[in-house]
User: Fold this.
Amino acid sequence: MSDLLVSGGQVLRPDRTVEHADVLVDRDSGEILSVDDPGELDGDDHLDADGGLVIPGLVNAHTHVSMTLLRGYADDKPLDRWLQEDIWPVEAELTAEDIRVGAELGLVEMLKSGTTALSDMYFHVEEIADAVERAGLRAVLGYTAVTVGKDDEGAHADLQESLDVARELDGAADGRIRTTFQPHSLTTVGESYLREYVPQAVEAGMAVHLHANETTDEVDPIVDEHGVRPLSYADDIGLLGPDTFLAHCVHVDDTEIDLLAERDTGVVHCPASNMKLASGMAPVQALLDAGVTVGLGTDGAASNNDLDMFDEMRDAAMLGKLAADDASAVDAGTVVEMATHNGADLLGFDSGRIEAGANADLAVLDLERPHLTPAHDLVSHLAYAASGSDVRHTVCDGQVLMRDREVTVVDETAVRERASEHARDLVERAAGDGE
Assistant:
């Protein structure tokens, strides 16, 4: 057995209290062995948390990690125009190597800001899986199927690939990778295809992840064509259930919120992306009050424009208060729970909490910063004052991925250089300059 001792700091406990304690980790099993009073534990290796706060690793429950290559490429447009005029045309030029390099950059960005688990939707998923395995993070991955704009053969092939990828990659990276079946959304995958392939995924016991009710343009066509709200339509198809989690859910009404709670279907809130694309304000407090599990995600770096979950917590708290017209809504403790335990619950990982038996997925924040002083309420600081650059160490599955701000698993400089080169070449190809 090889043990890692995280000592000298304060620890955020599952009940959101903070106490001085040390954390002992079994690096072989990747589990937390014990949380005890300072000086009571001993380990083979030591991670200094003096002057810091040990928190559960953050969970980015919805993102498109390879879109880091499009960070800042096309800003300040509404979702439909942004996708059709900018994102989809350049994505058509993506190679498997582009996706690998973009994923490497995004994973480094996340681990440097204390994120230890993510749920990703994209293409060439085997490349993303390889990058995840090398970076040492946990991930739920899947191939995102779209039938709009494809002939019948192409549509079937896309959905079959989503099923195949979910089967083939589940359990990869020594169990750190799980998978989902991923129809892109209710408006980009035709009804006949959903009715054919969703039952296959459910019968195979696959988790399901898709976009839903992000904008009114994802609501109105379904109401017009089917005479019901989108989530009632999804439920009739068999999409809702405890193994399904939906991204966005900005435009859900009371009946849909009740349906989500009844079906035990989770939601991933992406406040920064929703604000930037003017998609609207999700009724997060109403979802929580109904008993819906709500996690947090950054969405892709093309619509955020970073993958910092501390930013997302702050945005979620601020936007949640506006949406509810209530300054007490979506409070600090709630958004910390959304970014840790709730996200882990949606993804099916035993993470998001610091106690014996849980996954040893941790981050250590340096509290000795002007913007984190004074320390009246450290949970408040996590939600409203901290940033990813405050993270000193990151640990996932018992392995130290970043120590004293130095990434230990990949060459950060090389990753950045490759990403810059690939992003430049990608945009040139999309513009026709590479012909």
Q: What stands out?
A: The mean pLDDT is 97. The chain has 14 helices and 20 strands. The CA atoms of residues 234 and 253 lie 14 Å apart.
